[in-house]
Structures are given as structure tokens and as C-alpha cells.
Amino acid sequence: MFKQWFQKKEQSNINPVSSIKILIIEDSQVDAQMIKKAVEVCGFNSLVAYDGRTGVAMAKEHKPDLIILDYHLPDINGTQVLKELRGCKETALETVMILTVINGPEAVIDTFIQGADQFFKKPISVPFLAKQIQVMLRHPHKDNDSF
Questions:
Q1: Residue 48 pLDDT more than 60?
Q2: β-strand 118-121 against 96-100: which pairing, if any?
Q3: What is the spatial distance between Cα 69 and Cα 50, in angstroms, rounded to a whole number?
Q4: Strand partners, 46
Q5: Residues 52-78: pLDDT tens digits?
Q6: Listing from the earlier edge strand, what are the strands of the sheet with 96-100?
Q7: 132/42 Cα distance (integer angstroms)
Q8: Can you give the pLDDT at residue 142?
Q9: Cα(114)–Cα(12) distance, rounded to whole angstroms?
Q10: Is the CB of residue 133 less than 8 Å from the CB of residue 42?
């Protein structure tokens, strides 16, 4: 099913040249590559960080349009990444989507308190993820006149 969806998206070539950047902060290389492929098939540019500290540094440097953040990371968890992003002038208004296997209302509530814009549980279908990315980009959190 994924193969057919990717082929259809690649053939449609919806957005061949895009300036939209999406940062994926995901420690699982398999999950990161699947998300990266979905992002790129939609016509967007992607960057990948495999731990939280690298992700925060890349967010400051590249100022992505959307960050897809895993909750469980090897160095700091997603809540701490969110806290650092929201506490920094360069990244305070980045749009952040949590995508994780975590199961429990406390973690969901905590990520929203720390500033997550959306939360999805894995596994997630690639077509659904692509649609959610498009929705998140339609209503960005960023406001360049702030600060």
C-alpha cells in the first residue's frame, strides 16, 4: 500500500520545487526515513536529527516551517525539546507536531502544556501523515512580526 501511494505521489509531482523545510527529530532511523520519504514525496524539503539536542540546534540554524518530533529520544525527551524550543527567541514560534508511540494522557497533556501544536500516535499511515503535514502548514504557528 505504501509503495502504491508513493508511486502515485511521485507521478503527480504536486509541488516539484518547494522552499518549505520540515525538521524530523526521530531517533529511529527506520521511522525517520519513512517520515522523510513522505515529506519529500509531498514536495517539501526535509532535515533529520536523531536526538533532541541536535534537533534543537538544527531548528535554530534552519528555522523549519514544521518540526515533527518524537517524544522518546536518546538524550532528552520531547517535552524537554519543546521547552527549549519555546524558550528560545529563534524557535519560540516553530510549529511542532508530536509523532510517537507513547500511550497515556499525561504525556499528551504535558506536550500540549509545553507547546506542541498537534499530537499523533504511531503507527500512523503515510497518507494520513502527509495530509496532516499539509494541514499544519496551512495554519502555521509562526508570526514573523513577533519579537
A1: yes
A2: parallel
A3: 10
A4: 22
A5: 999 999 999 999 999 999 999 999 999
A6: 45-49, 21-25, 66-69, 96-100, 118-121
A7: 11
A8: 52
A9: 38
A10: yes
Amino acid code (one letter) for 2: F
pLDDT of residue 144: 42
b/e burial code for range 96-132 (CB count within 10 A of at least 16 → b): bbbbbebeeeebbebbeebbbbbbeebebebeebbeb
Beta carbons of 93 and 142 less than 8 angstroms apart: yes
How many angstroms separate the CA atoms of 125 and 86, rounded?
A: 28
Average pLDDT over residues 88-92: 91
Evaluate if pTM is beyond 0.90. Answer: no
Can you give the pLDDT at residue 26? Answer: 97
For residue 146, report the phi and psi dihedrals to the nearest 5 degrees.
-75, 155
CB 97 within 8 Å of CB 65: no
Asked if residues 136 and 128 have their Cβ atoms less than 8 Å apart, the reply is no
Residue 146 has pLDDT above 60, yes or no: no
